[in-house]
Amino acid sequence: MIPFSVLDLSPIRQGDTAAHAFANTRDLAQHAERWGYHRYWVAEHHNMRGIASAATALVISHIAANTKTIRVGAGGIMLPNHSPLVIAEQFGTLESLYPGRIDLGLGRAPGSDQRTARALRRNLSETADDFPQDVQELQAYFAPATPNQAIQAVPGAGLDIPIWLLGSSLFGAQLAAELGLPFAFASHFAPAMMMQAIEIYRTRFKPSAQLQKPYVMLGVSVFAAASDAEGLRLFTSLQQQFLNLIRGVPGQLLPPRDSMEGLWQPEERAHLERSLSCAMVGSAATVKEGLREFIARTGADELMITAQIYDHTARLRSFEITAELQKSL
User: Fold this and answer.
1) How large is the average pLDDT for residues 180-188?
2) Mean pLDDT, to the nearest integer, of 238-243?
3) Do residues 174 and 146 lie in contact, with contact meaning Cβ atoms separated by under 8 Å?
4) Are the C-beta atoms of 120 and 70 separated by less than 8 Å?
5) Interatomic CA distance for residues 110 and 79, integer angstroms
6) pLDDT value of residue 129
7) Averaged over 3-14, what is the pLDDT?
8) pLDDT at 7 exceeding the cut of 80
9) pLDDT of residue 124
10) What pLDDT score does 118 carry?
């Protein structure tokens, strides 16, 4: 039985506010802890009217303060938006407040458009090309401080905060292998290079002080419901969200529809079907078969389950069904 974890984008539903999203996040995290999920991650996005987790470290603190044992972290922090020292201090603070429970996943995308990235950083002289150096600088801040060290992360230095590298292409796989770090692939929205990335990571992996052998976590959207038809209906909220994103008009999470017919063009449908090809949608039996095949095909060490479901009660039920299925896989 491999661990199942939760990726929560703290969705802001149509007509709701970020306050509602954070209340739902707290509630889902508490349920996930009771259901046996291993970790609970939130992700950094900016200028997205449908995602509330922009101030990611604050949301992590909110979740950790309202749970007791589940690991909590970032999936991830978009490191090009920040100085490594600031992230070391933020996550050093989180680890000091909630010892032994904090994860730090790092990505090199901006989590936004270029205009927003410029507003975040004021200039783009430091870019994603600096990501490998920034990761190593961050690792250095978490190492025990040395005598006469000029710049220290306080808190942060000497704390055991696991760093993960995230990716949706081959770059992250290569860097995670080189640095000997656990690797999380975004197969829940960009599965095209998944198998190649896993192969590169596993074959090129170099053991490190943090990790002795490769460890792969894969993102999977799961829409589990009482029937296949109900799962497909819930799934339309995510499909609408992706459709609006590729059209350049991202918005709040929309209610489900009975059908997507008439809403998308053939080429848009094909694009969405490729992007969401790793989604598991339907009854418990259908989702179980999909998860079993996915685990067998990829050899994943852990699954990160996500579900952009409009109705909070239905979302809870989907995660509950998934947790029940884990025991029989």
Assistant:
1) 98
2) 97
3) no
4) no
5) 8
6) 78
7) 97
8) yes
9) 57
10) 77
- Measured CA to CA in angstroms, residue 282 lies from 127, 270, 293 at distances of 41, 20, 15
pLDDT over threshold 70, residue 234: yes
Which amino acid appears at position 32 of this protein? Answer: A
Per the listing, tokens 């029937």 go with 227
Mean pLDDT of the chain: 95
Mean pLDDT of the region 249-260: 96
HEC per residue, the chain: CCCEEEEECCECECCCCHHHHHHHHHHHHHHHHHHCCCEEEECCCCCCCCECCCCHHHHHHHHHHCCCCCEEEEEEEEHHHCCHHHHHHHHHHHHHHCCCCEEEEEECCCCCCHHHHHHHHCCCCCCHHHHHHHHHHHHHHHCCCCCCCCCCCCCCCCCCCCEEEEECCHHHHHHHHHHCCCEEECCCCCHHHHHHHHHHHHHHCCCCCCCCCCCEEEEEEEEECCCHHHHHHHHHHHHHHHHHHHCCCCCCECCCCCCCCCCCCHHHHHHHHHHCCCCEEECHHHHHHHHHHHHHHHCCCEEEEECCCCCHHHHHHHHHHHHHHHCCC
Distance from the Cα of residue 250 to its chain's centroid: 19
What is the C-alpha separation between 205 and 175, in angstroms, rounded?
Answer: 9
Burial classification of residue 270, based on how many CB atoms lie within 10 Å of its CB (0-12 exposed, 13-18 middle, 19 or more buried)? exposed
Picking from 262, 216, 213, 260, the residue whose alpha carbon sits closest to that of residue 241 is 260
The pLDDT score that the predictor gives to residue 213 is 98
Confidence of residue 282 (pLDDT cuts 50, 70, 90): very high
Mean pLDDT, range 116-135, rounded to an integer = 75
**Torsion sign, CA atoms 254, 259, 262, 268:** positive
- Amino acid type, 230: E
The dihedral sign for the CA sequence 325, 278, 269, 46: positive
